[in-house]
Amino acid sequence: MYVISKSIHLLNRAWKRFVIFLAVLGPGIIVMVADNDAGGIATYAVTGSKYGFSLLWMFIILLPMAYYIQEMTVRLGAVTKRGHAEAIFDGFGPVWGWFSVLDLAIINWLTLVTEYIGMTEALSLFGIPPG
To answer: Dmax over Cα atoms in the chain, in whole Å?
Structure first.
């Protein structure tokens, strides 16, 4: 009876740890997949067809950089209880603060444009005309 009780306890504990792991992993996967939009896929395809595997070495540099930048941004928000834009406004002044906000708005708008271009191109593969 002790072995069954202990096994149930260990399984329950492992399940709780697994759920916590998924809860922590979830936002990271969302951030990782967020850049896989239509414009990004087109850029990846063109770059891959032009250079092949010769630029693959750059991942050794880019992956740690991406991790540490996201880590610093999360820590900044956790410690200061403010968003990234508010920290820029306070630390560097209104000129750079508004530059970062406008830059973010323009980039988001351009990303939406590439999303719609990608959707119309994908639908044209199935014979559905745009408009």
So the answer is: 70
Q: Is 83 helix (H, G, I), strand (E, B) or coil?
A: coil
Query: Which residue is listed with tokens 């119309």?
Result: 120
d(CA 56, CA 60): 8
pLDDT digits (tens, 9 = 90+) for 75-121: 888 888 888 888 899 999 999 999 999 999 998 898 889 888 888 98
Residue 119 Cα to chain centre, angstroms: 20
pTM here is 0.58
Residues 6+ apart with CB under 8 A from 96: 88
